[in-house]
Structures are given as structure tokens and as C-alpha cells.
Amino acid sequence: MSDWKKPTMEHQKITKYGYFVEYPENLVLGKNIDIGVFTYINSHFGVEIQDGVEIGPHCSILSHSSIGNKKGKVIIKKHAKIGGYTLIMPGVTIGENSLVHAYSYIDKDTKDNENVKNTA
Fold first, then answer.
1. Domains of the chain (ranges, CATH numbers)
2. Quick check: 111 and 97 in contact, CB under 8 A?
3. pTM across the whole model
């Protein structure tokens, strides 16, 4: 994927790839990432998506949530795979090469190379 380019993003607007970002100035994207359509990223308090990450469609990645008024940077480390319809809560780090199953609720850190269904 040597021709990969960082997409243009505007606050509260859908990208040309079909995902939605709030506070794109606080979103750090690595290279060769794939973010599925209808994914919502709230990076108000920071989101870092490292190289080679794949995120399925309809995911929500939150650095701020009204549920418990949680806030915190989300980090998704290199080559992690996030299945569709997954919710990642604020302050969570997804380990390198980890696999998060579809329809998961992640509210705790995962280790590198971990296979995760839910952390709740």
C-alpha cells in the first residue's frame, strides 16, 4: 500500500471514505490504515491509530463519553484489527496485533497479540 495517503478530514463531516470524525485535529493516523464506513471517531481528548490498523464498519471510538462522563486518549497500536460494530470507550489502549471481535464493548486496555470479545 505504498500509495496510501492520509485522508482529508473536517470537524463533524463525513470523510470521502464514509466515516465521521469530531475534532480531527486531535486524531493521529499512522500509515496504511483502513477505517470502515459509518465509523464514528470522537477524538476530543485524543485518538491515535497506528500503522496498519484495520477498523470494521459501524464502530465507535470515543475519547469522551457521556456514560459516566469518561474522558481519555484512545490508542490503537500497530496492526490491530477491530471488528465491525465495536464500541471503544475513552482511555483505552488496544495492544499491537490484537484482534477485537465484532460487536465488542471495550472499556479496558488489551494486551499485545490478544484475541478479545469484550472487556466489560
1. 28-115 (2.160.10.10)
2. no
3. 0.91
